[in-house]
Amino acid sequence: MEWDVVIIGGGAAGLMCARVAGLRGRRVLVVEHANRCGKKILMSGGGRCNFTNTGTTPGNFLSANPHFCKSALARFTPTHFIGLVEQHRIGYHEKELGQLFCDDSSKRIVAMLLQECADAGVTVETSCSVERITQEQGHFRVATTRGTHAAASLVVATGGLSIPSMGATGFGYEIARQFGHTVLATRAGLVPLTLSGKHLDHYQDLSGLSLPVEVHCDGARFRNQLLFTHRGISGPGILQISSYWQPGKDLSIDLLPAEDAAEFLAGRQARQPASELRTVLGDALPKRLAQRLCDVWLGSKPMRQYRPAELRQIGAQLNAWPMVPSGTEGYRTAEVTLGGVDTNEVSSSTMESRRVRGLYFIGEVLDVTGHLGGYNFQWAWASGHAAGNVV
Fold this sequence. Notes:
By secondary structure, the protein is α+β, with helices and mostly antiparallel strands. It has 2 domains: 2-187 and 336-388, FAD/NAD(P)-binding domain (3-Layer(bba) Sandwich), CATH 3.50.50.60; 193-328, Elongation Factor Tu (Ef-tu), domain 3, CATH 2.40.30.10. The protein has 13 helices and 21 strands. Strands 1, 2, 7, 8, 9, 10 and 20 form a 7-stranded mixed β-sheet that branches. It starts with a strand and ends with a helix. The mean pLDDT is 97.
């Protein structure tokens, strides 16, 4: 069959691109190998979909080319997507830090996108896998399990490697390489970190305990929750820093991010001279964690027995507690994939390949990765919109 545009991937970016192209009168086919579109949308945000972030800026994204995302993000903002959500009368709320979630179910976002595509005359085929792609005389031929399709424009919106149980594969990277594109090394992002050996032994039985921290690594820092798990550490703060962490690097964790720990201890020494350090720390930290810190590293004695220099040293440790991850939980639980198609070989305004005319890459398959909190969906909407306006 002949189409103007074939889009491989019926996720957030692919559906947005299809909608915009369809509204321009283009004949659009979306090919999705899973049995339904938008599976990652459906599971995101605990089933309520953190569909954008009102504070989105280019600084919320990682890429070997940090300028690449600017054009698309400027032309399709959170306000634009919120307008679409409101048009479909989908209730939403801000959870924290500009993160917008559906009031009820993420199914509403998928239904909205599919309805928009249907209204724009887009054809969507699910349970349809691509077997082969060739290019002949300026047209792409896409052989699928449901027949062969031809189109002048081919859009790769296949996502990354994260959460393979949702159907994620590296197919988009294979297409990129087939047409001469560079694919930058990929790794799991927004992912829990694992501990091993004595590092795991020290914290493993604290599983389920959480606390607010500020975590630092490689010049990046995030203030949010840390959660101890059976395998290591997680929580929003750790997921954020995981995109910056590399094997061999240590984390520095401020366990008392709201105050100078040395000043806190000096004040408690003056007011509670008879209290033990473990008791004082138990007022500022979860008691089980305070007990563990004292049992393994800090020791504990009545506050009156500490010299000022000792309290300053303990305070410095608490504001920069070292932790040594051994790895990550990998793509199985990662929310995103870092790396991907090299953006230096793609137009930042149209998402078109600089190597092959008519070939486009959008969404997570590109080397653009957002922070936790709705930014990756906003990149999907923005990059899909950019391509949809020109395919």
